[in-house]
Write a structure and sequence with these properties.
Elements: E1 11-15, H1 26-34, E2 37-40, H2 46-49, E3 57-60, H3 72-84, E4 89-93, H4 103-112, E5 117-120, H5 125-133, E6 146-150, H6 164-169, E7 173-177, H7 183-192, E8 200-205, E9 213-218, H8 222-229, E10 235-239, E11 261-264, H9 268-280, E12 284-287, E13 291-294, H10 300-309, E14 318-321, H11 324-336, E15 348-351, H12 354-362, H13 376-387, E16 391-397, H14 403-409, E17 413-424, H15 431-437, E18 443-446, H16 449-456, H17 461-468, E19 473-476, H18 479-487, E20 494-495, H19 501-518
Parallel strand pairs: 1-4, 1-5, 2-3, 2-4, 6-7, 11-12, 11-18, 14-15, 14-16, 16-17, 18-19, 19-20
Antiparallel strand pairs: 7-10, 8-9, 8-10, 13-17
The structure holds S-adenosyl-L-homocysteine (SAH).
S-adenosyl-L-homocysteine is lined by residues 18-19, 43, 93-96, 99-101, 124-125, 128-129, 177-178, 204-208, 233-236.
Length: 523
């Protein structure tokens, strides 16, 4: 994150792009991460808000108090008041703020009240639909012009600003925003003014996300084909020669998990990487954090252990971390106590798995040993030669498997300390949980035994039935997590071969591919 420059404006009109968080500009991401107030349009993809400063106040403009007439003065008022109070404001709009987003009017209101602002462009829906459908917007041989058109205005009604006779003759591709509800009138108007009925046409709903759906047809057939396919707003209508040159299956539709719905159960602060990985694979990921990490309710034992760590004698020889959370918790606690990493200088460090070792590296610490398999049993084996007869401090969660300390205690003098508390955090009111309850999620990834316990404790009989019938599939990060799931009476659809988040993602991918091959008619 960049440090804000005091001369920078406090208000930014920001394009959120069409849906895929990967299409956010770097400037938009910087501003979101630093914002105090985010005023977002209803159409803004909710995933984009995951990238905002968690402490920011996020308000959907739809939820501003209602008043007769135009809502916009209310939005202006909120922006202006917040900026005058010194808060950093992001006014977030779907796509680009200046393409059918009333960004121009909002900028004018800010100018009028003397509030400085900046404007950050976004990927507008037309560009997203073209790229994700593999449909060139322009082409040297047949399309030299593109028109962005609002379909919101009723054609053939007095007061329309659109000149349909001219649009019907437009020598290029027509891209119509907000036109789904008025599609029959739009088609009739274009045909009436001479647009050939067999002009190629495409409709694209939710471009750039795993929920993208589209149809290809001709101008005359558009409404019938739309209705048969059940496409609804928000969608984009593309009419013209270029629409006939679309690749039948785009690169995005060919992604291995295109359209498949996946649940991510990691804690909120750790979910983003997995969410992005699934998005890049074409999936529709849902985040439902099952666990939260808190500082230990009673930090006294951790403080005492840390004090012992820095003693030249009577302290410890090894400090063993069982998770990245443990590493961050210890370093944070040291900082809280006014100490620093030098306090760890007397001990050797062990990290259970590559993610834990990577967390140490974030603080320029190198693990002295990183066991290759990522379960407690093999950790003991790889530690044996190092720690036998030594004094070991094990920094762990308030709850965890007892296998590691028990086994370690057979070969070394082990002291355990709670570095952080792990708390069940499934929110039954969350949108992801509602989707789960409605049976709308196909793959449920369980990234730890405690995640599995926390989530499955919330399942009712209907949900259990869906898992038993294979409609919802539980995918476990390791055999140990698989064992816990079976113990709770649920079938496991797949277990990761490598016990990491990447291994878990790979397991979903393989499961999805297998099913396509074994029973292509099942969907
Ligand atoms: N400022 C936005 C457009 C706002 S008008 C932009 O630049 O994209 C809202 C209309 O945009 C919707 O009715 C729909 O026609 C279109 N739209 C927005 N996002 C879309 C998406 N992901 N896929 C298809 N159409 C989209």
């Amino acid at each position: 994150m960049t440090t804000p420059d005091p001369s920078e404006p406090l208000v930014a009109l920001v394009g959120a792009g069409p849906g895929d968080p990967g299409l956010l500009t770097r400037r938009a991401a910087e501003l979101l991460a630093a914002a105090d107030l985010i005023l977002y349009d209803q159409l803004v993809p909710r995933r984009i808000l995951d990238l905002a400063n968690p402490a920011a106040e996020a308000v959907c403009v739809r939820d501003l108090p209602t008043q007769p007439g135009d809502k916009y003065p209310l939005i202006y008022g909120r922006m202006i008041d917040a900026a005058k109070a010194g808060r950093r404001v992001v006014r977030l709009k779907g796509g680009d703020p200046l393409v059918f987003g009333r960004g121009g009017e909002e900028a004018e209101a800010l100018r009028d009240s003397g509030v400085p602002y900046e404007i950050v462009p976004g990927v507008t829906a037309a560009l997203a639909a073209a790229a994700y459908l593999d449909l060139p917007l322009t082409h040297r041989n047949h399309t030299s012009a593109v028109a962005l058109i609002t379909g919101h205005e009723l054609p053939n009604k007095p007061g329309t600003k659109l000149d349909w006779p001219t649009l019907a003759r437009f020598p290029g591709l027509l891209v119509i925003y907000m036109g789904m509800a008025r599609l029959p009138v739009i088609v009739a108007e274009l045909v009436k003014h001479g647009k050939p009925a067999d002009t190629p046409a495409v409709i694209c709903e939710r471009a750039s996300t795993g929920q993208m759906r589209s149809v290809s047809t001709t101008l005359a057939e558009l409404e019938g084909v739309r209705r048969a396919a059940g496409l609804e707003a928000p969608g984009l209508i593309l009419i013209g020669e270029a629409a006939g040159h679309r690749h039948p299956v785009s690169w995005f539709e060919a992604r291995p998990l295109f359209g498949r719905r996946v649940l991510v159960t990691r804690p909120r602060h750790q979910a983003e990487g997995m969410m992005r990985a699934f998005e890049r694979l074409g999936a529709v990921p849902f985040s439902l954090p099952t666990l939260e990490i808190h500082p230990p309710a009673d930090p006294a034992p951790l403080d005492a252990a840390l004090a012992k760590l820095r003693q030249p004698d009577g302290g410890f020889d090894w400090l063993v971390f069982t998770s990245a959370n443990g590493v961050h918790a210890v370093v944070r606690r040291l900082a809280h106590l006014g100490r620093d990493l030098r306090d760890l200088g007397r001990v050797k460090l062990a990290a259970i798995g590559p993610k834990t070792a990577a967390a140490l590296r974030e603080y320029h610490l190198t693990a002295d040993v990183v066991p290759i398999a990522f379960i407690a049993e093999s950790l003991v084996e790889s530690l044996r030669e190092h720690v036998a007869g030594k004094r070991v401090l094990l920094a762990r969660a308030n709850r965890g498997r007892d296998h590691l300390p028990v086994e370690l205690a057979k070969i070394a003098a082990v002291e355990q300390v709670t570095a952080y508390d792990q708390v069940d955090a499934v929110d039954p009111e969350a949108e992801a949980f509602a989707a789960l309850r409605r049976g709308e999620i196909e793959f449920i990834t369980l990234s730890s035994s405690n995640a599995a316990r926390a989530l499955l404790a919330r399942f009712d009989d209907t949900m259990r039935g869906r898992v038993e019938r294979g409609e919802m599939k539980l995918v476990a990060i390791s055999p140990e997590t698989g064992r816990v799931i079976r113990e709770l009476g649920y079938p496991v659809a797949a277990e990761a071969g490598v016990y990491t988040v990447d291994g878990l993602i790979e397991a979903v991918r393989r499961l999805a591919a297998d099913e396509v091959i074994s029973d292509p008619s099942s969907r």
